[in-house]
Design brief:
The chain contains no helices and eleven strands. It has 123 residues and is mostly beta strands. The strands form two sheets. Strands 2, 4, 5, 6, 9, 10 and 11 form a seven-stranded mixed beta sheet that branches.
């Protein structure tokens, strides 16, 4: 088990950028794949990006390809999501999740979740 805390959300204008951070407790975090998901009002939680435990394999939803970059620093027990060229459609609560094994695309594949951080993009 790991505890996850997201930060870096906020209000940004369309075209702007944000960098989300997911800080983990526990040395075993470096053995966990980590994913970012988001949930907009009235919508289901959806996959955004994921990274394997070493940081050598990354995966993105089509909505974020070319705009979002996931990375990790295991020495700091932190995973990042750099988001560029944001649009109002990116407005949501963003969650990070961690699980041992390969990175997954489905929220059900993760058993460790943070509390979420709000991202709001104004037009």
């Amino acid at each position: 088990q790991v505890q996850l805390v997201e930060s870096g959300g906020g209000l940004v204008q369309a075209g702007g950028s944000l960098r989300l951070s997911c800080a983990a407790s526990g040395r075993t975090f470096s053995n966990y794949a980590t994913g970012w998901f988001r949930e907009a009002p009235g919508k289901e939680r959806e996959f955004v990006a994921a990274i394997d435990w070493r940081g050598g394999s990354t995966h993105y939803a089509d909505s974020g390809k070319g705009r979002f970059t996931i990375s990790r620093d295991n020495a700091k027990y932190t995973v990042y999501l750099q988001m560029n060229n944001l649009t109002p459609d990116d407005t949501a609560v963003y969650y990070c999740a961690a699980e041992s094994g390969p990175p997954g695309y489905d929220p059900g594949e993760y058993s460790n979740w943070g509390q979420g951080t709000q991202v709001t993009v104004s037009s």
